[in-house]
Design goal:
The complex is a heterotrimer of chains A (226), B (394) and C (227). In chain A, helix 7 packs antiparallel against helix 9. Chain A is 81% helix and 0% strand. Chain A has 226 residues and is mostly helical. Chain A has a single domain, classed as MetI-like (MetI-like fold, Orthogonal Bundle). Chain B has 16 helices and 18 strands. In chain B, helix 5 crosses helix 7. Chain B is elongated, with a radius of gyration of 27 Å. Chain B starts with a strand and ends in a 7-residue tail after the last strand. Chain C has one domain: Orthogonal Bundle (MetI-like fold), CATH 1.10.3720. Chain C contains 10 helices and no strands. Classes of the chains: A mainly alpha (226), B alpha/beta (394), C mainly alpha (227). At the A-C interface, helix 3, helix 4, helix 5, helix 7 and helix 8 of A face helix 3, helix 4, helix 7, helix 8 and helix 9 of C.
Chain lengths: 226, 394, 227
């Protein structure tokens, strides 16, 4: 039987769609972990990113942090957390948040720091305070990149949450990990399909969000300059 | 020779950049296209090397339509210099200059040698700069490299699009002088675009003034442009002080100089006064033994002195400004006269020796004569400085 | 942390490091070989780029484990099952990188090249591509470092890498292995990063004056693609 057949057979069965191990619950779990981690990461990274972007300091450090972060193997980090903290909520939350921070941080920094100096000058010349410049001028212009940072962050968290099933986390990764352990290839295949759909759905949500949040003028400008 | 035959460029959104342009660019001369932003001068320039293609009409390069040749071949025979230089950051200066020869298959060593020769030609020291990269050079130096690069394949035609607009005024003036000097050696057919009418007048043999909308207002020599602007637009575009600026084009060789009142320091006060009276002049110019100018003396002051005093020993007024009739224009002579406290300017030769003096009166005559000749379409005469025919004390 | 474990298991450590290195380096190279012509095509035919970009953003969003699993059916449980998805991810990073790199060439340079008589192809190869090298190397750094760290996930489906030490250490409750695995993965990634940085410095002696641009480029590429 092929992969698709395995997946289809497993997905067809109604028992997959109900109960504590059912797909809906797992989807909600997965989305929950993702949303929570990205939210916490945003609460931490957005202010820092805005500040270092506004004062144009620490950008170099931020970029290097991002580079080092990429080198960290997520599986290793998750397992390390278990060694250090045992099995608790923080065990998976900390790594997820830590992995979610760099994209938000770097993109926010880039977004704010990349605002035209002339724009900031004109604003300050009109009598705006530092705070107003940040809030009214830099932030709106930086929103596309900030959204990109949040979106990228979500990608990594969805992927890492999948792997975190290895250390006992719920969510959709469970199907793959449990399925591999019990040689139930149908579960593995079905789980993979659901994950792919979820990941794409999250992307679609962000595209929609972007349309809502990014000022139209900026969007058209970006499209025209491409 | 480059010919525009009823050339029009219309863009899809309706803007007309160039409208029915007829223009002839003479061989071996610098033709400057000048006008405000959006007047079509750059578009016209870029139609010559086919970076832009005309909507209608033809552009002929030595009789062949530029659209007939293969674009890359056409362009290898035309030098192109732009404001931002467009130097390749990833190649050394000498390799930058040798770009077109490389494209044409010239051997590496040969092409690089030629590049180094060209560097010397444009005033860059090949020994230190050949293997540097563009980012290590100043704006003015980069632009010189740009010009060298355009000349590398020895093209008969050179196109320049606001080449000196991105550098500061001092460097710009130097580069303009360099271009004039280069042209005197190389005699390329140059088409230069600028928005600076001063640059056009300084550098151009012929100047084509564009109107917004892509029309030609006037094509003429710089002197004619200043002397006879065809309408209010051109008059306003050319700017103030036309009359005075026009004087730059009249050589000072036509000036009739006063020589009798130029006296060596050994002359006595009495003799000096006698000469001045005879010539009806209020000032005499004192020279030293080498005939270099030393200062002016007022006749009124001489009269107060013992008659036998040598004029060299008297306190003098400064000579003010000098000018060279063989190389300077009437404008320089006039300027020198205005700047001198004595309202007289001293004409010297290339050794600094006095040839004579001039005054407002004499300038007035010379200016009127030059303008008459120019208006009648005659070329201003080029010759030796003219001196008054008279016996004098020498 | 039991230090003695390291010399005792030197062969295994070396073997797994090598495995990880291969799994980390082959995909970006494949990605590069495909993305350069693909990127050039997207620049030459601009209409190609938006759909390519959307597709690559979508693929990049997929968790690696899911992709590994999908491939099991087609390529079994060998290295290829890990290499192919990682190569896909590298492509998702590198195609936009190549396109951005080519587009970052100043207009004046491109115009000057055309005006001197470069044909479009020649200009791309002799002028634009060399100038895009710093940006492309920045993208390679991201692709290589990501691949090296993602390779360890393959251990979950049994494909050998430094991830072995994570799983084994986890199952045997032996933290030393985990620490070693982490340290080696990160070290391997940073060494490869350093090699690429050196490569860039060697290949582009002319960009000494432009260090700022490359760190910008790394940042821009490092954190995602835009659809």
């Amino acid at each position: 039987m092929s992969f698709l057949q395995f997946a289809w057979d497993w997905l067809k069965s109604s028992s997959q769609w109900s109960g504590p191990d059912g797909i809906p619950i797992r989807v909600l779990q997965h989305l929950g972990y993702t949303a929570l981690s990205v939210l916490i990461a945003a609460v931490i990274a957005l202010p820092i990113g805005l500040l270092i972007g506004h004062y144009r300091r620490g950008g170099f450090a931020a970029v290097n942090v991002a580079n080092v972060w990429r080198a960290i193997p997520t599986l290793g980090l998750l397992i390390l957390m278990v060694v250090l903290l045992g099995f608790s909520a923080l065990t998976w939350l900390i790594p997820l948040v830590v992995l979610a921070i760099p994209p938000i941080l770097v993109n926010t920094y880039e977004g704010v720091a990349g605002v035209d100096e002339d724009l900031k000058d004109a604003a300050r010349g009109m009598g705006m305070t530092q705070w107003q410049v940040l809030w009214k001028v830099e932030l709106p212009v930086a929103i596309p990149l900030i959204m990109l940072g949040l979106r990228t962050s979500a990608i990594f968290v969805v992927a890492t949450a999948t792997i975190a099933a290895e250390i006992g986390l719920g969510g959709l990764g469970r199907y793959i990990i449990d399925g591999l352990a019990s040689n139930n290839y149908g579960e593995v295949a079905g789980g993979a399909v659901v994950i792919v759909v979820l990941a794409l759905a999250v992307q679609v949500i962000f595209v929609g969000l972007r349309r809502l949040v990014v000022p139209t003028g900026l969007r058209e400008q970006a499209r025209a300059s491409r | 020779m480059i010919t525009f035959e009823n050339v029009t460029k219309r863009y899809p959104d309706g803007t007309v950049a160039v409208d029915s342009l007829d223009l002839e660019v003479p061989d071996g001369k610098i033709m400057v296209l000048v006008g405000p932003s959006g007047c079509g001068k750059t578009t016209s320039l870029r139609m010559i090397n086919r970076l832009v293609e005309p909507t209608s009409g033809r552009i002929l390069l030595d009789g062949t339509n530029v659209l007939d040749a293969k674009p890359s071949q056409l362009r290898r025979g035309i030098g192109y210099v732009i404001q931002q230089t467009g130097l390749f950051p990833h190649r050394t200066i000498e390799d930058n200059i040798a770009t077109v020869p490389f494209l044409n298959g010239v051997a590496r060593r040969q092409a690089r040698e030629r590049a180094r020769d060209l560097m010397q030609l444009v005033g860059l020291d090949a020994a230190t700069m050949a293997r540097r990269y563009p980012y290590q050079l100043s704006g003015g130096q980069q632009q010189r490299v740009g010009v060298a690069r355009a000349l590398a394949a020895d093209p008969p035609v050179l196109l320049m699009d606001e080449p000196f607009s991105a550098v500061d005024p001092i460097v710009r003036a130097t580069l303009q002088d360099e271009l004039i000097r280069l042209q005197a050696e190389l005699h390329k057919t140059v088409v230069l675009v600028t928005h600076d009418v001063e640059e056009a007048i300084k550098v151009g043999d012929q100047v084509a003034v564009f109107r917004p909308g892509g029309h030609l207002a006037q094509v003429d020599s710089p002197e004619r442009l200043l002397g006879a602007p065809v309408d209010d637009y051109v008059r306003d575009f050319v700017g103030f002080d036309r009359g005075i600026r026009r004087l730059s084009f009249f050589p000072a060789t036509d000036l009739v100089l006063a020589t009798q009142t130029v006296l060596p320091g050994t002359t006595t006060a009495a003799d000096a006064i006698a000469v001045a009276r005879r010539e009806n002049e209020a000032w005499v110019l004192v020279t030293d033994t080498g005939r270099a100018p030393r200062g002016w003396l007022a006749v009124a002051d001489l009269q107060a002195l013992p008659p036998a005093t040598r004029i060299a020993d008297v306190g003098m007024a400064p000579i003010g400004h000098t000018f060279r009739p063989d190389t300077d224009s009437l404008r320089a002579a006039l300027d020198a006269t205005i700047l001198s406290r004595t309202e007289r300017a001293v004409a010297v030769d290339d050794n600094g020796q006095v040839l004579g003096t001039t005054s407002y009166e004499r300038l007035r005559t010379a200016i009127a004569a030059a303008e008459d000749a120019a208006d009648r379409g005659a070329q201003p005469a080029v010759g030796t400085p003219q001196v008054e025919q008279a016996e004098g004390v020498h | 942390m039991e230090w003695s474990w390291i010399p005792q298991n030197w062969t295994a450590i070396w073997q797994y490091t090598l495995d990880n290195a291969l799994l980390g380096l082959i995909p970006p190279v494949i990605g590069l070989l495909i993305s350069v012509p693909a990127g050039i095509a997207c620049v030459l035919w601009g209409w190609l780029y938006p759909p390519v970009l959307s597709l690559s953003s979508a693929i990049y969003a997929l968790p690696s484990l899911a992709l590994f699993v999908v491939l099991i059916d087609y390529t079994g449980l060998g290295n290829l099952t890990v290499i192919i998805p990682l190569a896909l991810f590298s492509l998702c990073i590198l195609i936009p990188t190549v396109v951005d790199g080519l587009r970052s060439v100043p207009d004046s340079v491109r115009q000057a090249a055309t005006a001197m008589g470069f044909t479009q192809v020649r200009r791309l190869v002799q002028v634009e591509l060399p100038l895009a090298v710093p940006v492309i190397i920045a993208g390679m750094r991201v692709a290589v470092v990501s691949s090296i760290s993602l390779a360890s996930v393959g251990q979950l489906i049994g494909v050998s890498s430094l991830g072995y030490f994570f799983i084994d250490g986890f199952q045997r409750d032996f933290p030393t292995e985990i620490y070693v695995g982490l340290a080696l993965t990160i070290a391997l990634a940073l060494v490869c990063d350093l090699i690429l940085v050196t490569l860039r410095a060697v290949l582009t002696p002319w960009s000494r004056g432009r260090q700022r641009d490359s760190s910008r480029a790394v940042a821009a590429v490092a954190v995602g693609t835009e659809a």
